[in-house]
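user: Here is a favour to ask of a fellow structure person. I have my own habits and do not want them to colour yours. Could you put it straight underneath, so I can go through it closely?

assistant:
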Amino acid sequence: MWIKRDFLTIWNPEDCLEALLVRGPRQIGKTSILLKMIPPPLSKLFLDDPNEKDRATKDPEFVVSQLQLPALIDEIQRAPDLLYSIKKNIDLQRHRRIETGRPTMPAAFRMTGSNQTEIDLALRETLAGRISVFHIHGLSAHELWSHDPSITLTDILFRGGFPELWVRPELQVVPFLNDYYSSFIEKDVAKSAGVEKLAAFSSVVRLLAARVGELLNYESIGNDAGAVGKSVKDWISLLEKNGLVYILKPYHSNLNKRLIKMPKAYFLDTGLCVRMQAHQERDAILSIPQAGHLFENLVVAEAVKTRDHFRKDWELFYWRTKEKEEIDLVIETNKVLCLIQVKLGSTASGEILVPPALLATKKTICRAFVVATGGRQVQSNGVEIVPVGKFCDYLLEML
């Protein structure tokens, strides 16, 4: 079973340089996306295979010379020497273009990469100016509901966006996510980055999940996890770099000295967040104490996925003053601001009050609305309510 990915609806090989990298965590469908691209790859190289990795490491020049283009190379960070041979191939294509006028092939080398620390080290001095990079996340609520409108909000919160959990419903969520944490987050991400205190690192991840949507206080988390604040900040930055969490920064304005300047943290997969909170019962998700923040997490993650999967140039923030005037999500383009409140429910009361300092930023407030759990898109007591299932489409129409 294939769940259609939003990214493929806007992808055009003609918009790419000769190399293409789809980056994001493991198990989110990067390879499947590359396999579905048109035109399809003519060669495939899977570097998780020890034999393929060994061959690519020992003789990268020969391996690249044998590829039929376009080619798919999975987990490129496993054999970084391939990048030098790819660079040589691309430069040769460009020289031929100058001599013959024959264009180079866009997206000729289509690569995936999961460990962003290793990828950045590998790419830094090889494919600059030759590669288009795309950030991909797990399945969004928009993709899931487009595939099957009968899917429940509770299911999305509990299962998250790992495609394997949706195409194979017989898989048990809790063991899958436990294995994912130990195999990818702890071993692949943390160990490869040199994290030695894995017990403290795991405590930080769990505390971060428990405090999702709250102001991010590194020292406080460190005190509870038995780690110093600098280590906590470095570890959370590592999770952010690897596409596991999103750090939502406060909207900046020099016009208002009362603004809170601490960021917030959200998990880009709600299922992983729920698992790190140690909840095991799907049907109880909307009644747990963290339910409001968990739904807020879903909305923020959905905005991030919509931006990245549709290649939008949006900046995401929140707004809060010391007097607790707050806008849960502020989306900024080069011309306008969109103000969003998040409510666990299907109704809203009162109006969204736009802080005067936001009006003074000289940005047009294009819309202020509430994202709620369900129901129809309505006006209630002067407030526009958008159900989370229509949130992605609404943003794309408006911004």
Remarks:
- The two ends are 32 Å apart (CA to CA).
